[in-house]
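Review form for a predicted model. The reviewer records the input and the model, then writes brief findings.
Reviewer: anonymous (R2)
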Amino acid sequence: MNAPVRILYQTLAHGFYLVSAPYFLFRMARSERYRAGLSQRLGRLPSALAEIGRRRPIWIHSVSVGETRSMEPVVERLHGARPEIPIVMSTVTRTGQVLAQRLPHVAATIYLPLELDWIVGRVFRIVHPRLLVLVDTEMWPTLVSRAGRSGVPVMLANGRVSDRSWPRYRRLRWFFAPLFGGLARVLAQSETDRERLVALGAAVERTSVSGSTKYDAVPARDAELRARWRARFGLSPDEILIVAGSTFPGEEALIVSAAAGLSERVRLLVAPRHPERAEDVIETVQRAGRRPLRLSRWEGGTLGPRDVLIVDTLGQLREIYAAADLAVIGKSFRAHGGQNPIEPASQAVPTLTGPHMENFREAMAVLLEAGGVLQLSGEHELPPTLARLSAAPEECRRLGENAWAALQARRGAADRVVEEILGVLDAPSAGAP
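Model under review:
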């Protein structure tokens, strides 16, 4: 990014934060989600970061839970290859931060600083990274520009450009091309993503298809895990558990209504994308004449046909999918781009999605081709599809097995990403102070 464009961008960024300050102050007063990490976003980092900075860490930035989880196998392999190099992870969301803090080989976690050069510069001086790895297409202009001016190479891992963001990126190519063009390596999830990233300015010779590390991050198929969660929920072998995961506003009412006329053997669990929405979900369940139960207060017992168990905790949905007989992917029945279908598929759970899965185009293509997922054309198809599948165990078994087999065939991206990271680290000028 040249100086005039950088100055223009910084002027607009300062103006944006100034104008939006009243809104964010209001939201912070009402929600912990907006208060979380404020001091770090303003560049005030824990004192321990200074010591880590002296060891020149690798800085990995992942926006939220899905991106952070996809880096888990990369972090593990990096630590095995270069245990002397600490790893710092940054996130935007609180849920992503909680997950990053649980990863065993991460030396420190921080919230991504605001896109203001004086704040990002301060954070860079403290963290003092030898390499910056961005996950998906987290192209933060100030962060990337500061890395370039500091002589720190930048990589893009799991690179993708969604169908929804592609037109916007093309319109702003004049702005993004220098940023993409300066990346040391661009590792795309698919050939379509590679072509789009090159069209946006990424160097052809430094851009390749590595696949997605999400396939390496999913837990192994685990019968013991399934048995443990089903026992905790008091489920008998003939009872059918439907798990609606990562739901957005409006979807809970749709799913509860769709499940209302099903067999007495069916049980329902709903996991909102943001657990702090639990109270809203409880009201939705009550309006539907069902009994809401919170997982955080669940002390065991038996789920009844009128009960709806609400996951109001962080980090447990991935394991809970193992207990499911049928999964419904949230954020996909309205135009929000969908959520990760890989987690239930990794446990051979038959999975349904709505029509809007644009943010997981590559994973959906893999699962659809293998006959491992059902993508509905709209909300109207959900009730009859749930009714059919809840009474068709053989079709469910086939869906789940197809999905599981498709995922196994696509593992290995984490090894390729780590190989590229080590190649950049070993380059003569990498991370020169």
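Findings: The chain has a mean pLDDT of 93.
Further findings: The first strand starts at residue 58 and ends at 61.
Recommendation: see findings above.
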